[in-house]
Write a structure and sequence with these properties.
about 260 residues; alpha/beta; Spore Coat Polysaccharide Biosynthesis Protein SpsA, Chain A; eight-stranded mixed beta sheet; two-stranded antiparallel ribbon; 10 strands
Length: about 260
């Protein structure tokens, strides 16, 4: 199957503006993200999906430096942005990964995409329910499912966040991939980038790990935190915070799960 990975990115983040072009390691948050996604064996075509806003010209410039393709679409309707990119690249499988996951483990990407490819359904992710440490988000959807969501979804939350109609409407067949350890660190360990405190934490992790092992993974980070527990305090105030827990009952959090054949 033709797999397309879309890394959604924009500079106008309300909580931490400009975060994707902040320095990280030897480059930027975006360059770190692109390197990690490209390292996934099942990555397919990798494209940065940004907006048509003029401020995001800087993202396109960075993408040219990185040699990664860029797609520009609707600033707020991410469902439309993802669907239009799917049409342009004629993908059979579209993968959504936000660029607020700059330390995502390539192995987590392969695990979720691999699960989908082994037994395709409408939607597969590692988020419903989440078990991986926060910052390893991968959502995979079939082309027909994304097209149907694009045609039918009407709520603002469904358009702004791309996938809620797929996993929350009860109309699609979905499957969840849990962390292979059998543990749930989604509410206790956070290396997603939403706030300034997250950025300080992520920089500290990279300084300790990245110079020795550029593509360090989940296990490396957990070992580092065991050795340096004081790092956890840097963004502790935001642990457990997520956009879908702030929606005031708009989401049903329901989905039909099916086992693999």
């Amino acid at each position: 199957m033709k797999v397309l990975i879309l890394l959604q990115a924009r500079l106008g983040s309300s909580r931490f503006p400009g975060k994707v072009l902040k320095p990280l390691g030897e480059g930027t948050v975006l360059s770190e993200m692109v390197s990690r996604v490209r390292a996934a064996k099942l990555a397919g075509t990798v494209v940065v999906a940004t907006t048509t806003d003029s401020q995001d010209d800087a993202i396109e410039t960075e993408c040219r430096k990185l040699g990664v393709e860029v797609f520009r679409g609707h600033p707020l309707d991410l469902l439309d942005r993802h669907y239009q990119a799917q049409l342009q690249y004629r993908s059979e499988v579209t993968v959504k990964i936000p660029t607020d996951c700059p330390l995502i483990d390539p192995a987590a990407i392969d695990r979720v995409i691999g699960d989908y490819l082994a037994a395709p359904v409408d939607f597969v992710s590692n988020l419903h329910p989440a078990t991986y440490p926060d910052g390893n988000d991968v959502e995979v959807m079939s082309a027909p499912a994304l097209e149907r969501a694009w045609k039918e979804a009407t709520k603002t939350i469904e358009r702004e966040h791309t996938t809620p109609y797929l996993w929350d409407s009860g109309l699609f067949t979905v499957r969840n991939v849990t962390w292979e350890t059998g543990l749930d660190y989604s509410q206790s360990h956070r290396w997603v980038l939403d706030y300034v405190e997250d950025y300080v934490f992520i920089q500290a992790l990279w300084e300790r790990l990245g110079r020795h092992k550029p593509l360090f993974g989940v296990r490396d980070i957990l070992d580092c935190l065991d050795d340096n527990p004081e790092l956890l305090a840097m963004n502790a105030k935001w642990v457990g915070d997520s956009w879908y827990l702030r929606q005031g009952g708009e989401l049903r959090h329901s989905w039909k799960q099916t086992p693999k054949n």
